[in-house]
Fold this sequence. Notes:
Elements: H1 34-48, E1 54-58, E2 73-76, H2 82-92, E3 97-103, H3 104-109, H4 112-121, E4 126-131, H5 161-164, H6 170-175, E5 180-187, H7 191-209, E6 214-220, H8 224-227, H9 231-245, E7 249-253
Parallel strand pairs: 1-2, 1-3, 3-4, 4-6, 5-6
Antiparallel strand pairs: 5-7
Amino acid sequence: MQGRFISGDSLKKIFSRTRSLTDTVNTYCAGCGHGIVHRLIAEAVDELGIRERTIGVAPVGCAVYAYDYFNFDVSEAPHGRTPCVAAAIKRMLPDRLVFSYQGDGDLAAIGTAEIVHCANRGDTITVIFINNANFGMTGGQMAPTTLVGQKTTTTPEGRQTETAGYPLKICELLAALEGAVYLERTTVTNPASVMKTKKAILKAFRNQMQGKGFSLIEVLSPCPVNWRMKPADALQWIDAKMTKQFPLGVIKNLE
């Protein structure tokens, strides 16, 4: 078979690091969804041309070092208080785009009161909520979003409703609050779902830029290490199991 030589001069670079990401080595576990969502946020910021006006607020949890990855201002908040810090920054600097980035332990466990009241007030911020159904950073304990029957380090026999109740559906919980204007649940299990997540993030950011109120994007994200799964199996588990408990789609959208 005759081969064909392509010179380096004829190759066109079609993919590169977006400006809103730093040149930092990724330290998330193999197969983790955080890196994907970081990229989507950074792309959205760059496409909207708001890098110099964007402020993120990092949580306590796996994404505690989010400020190492984003090439714009990022603050740190005490555990669960992330949306409150974001709301305060937004009130002091109303011309900025401010978002909080939170896992299910930070938002749905210790931060339950904070997220409810920020949404109820209609604080004009954006919340990116990463739901991987466990406390990822501290060893994989049960979280409020852990599925019924799901095994964790604190539920070795699986979550039981008699003692632990049912998984907390954050989007559906916040939908009843008048201050919440846009709530959508997405995932990152395949290219199409990744693009839907980016579209949702862009809409949430535009809502804030237009002063519409509180928006939250919930992303069902894989945690292969704590789930004791291979990365590919973790993606399939989200589609097969998590989406039944947490249906994908727009939960609330007040145009």
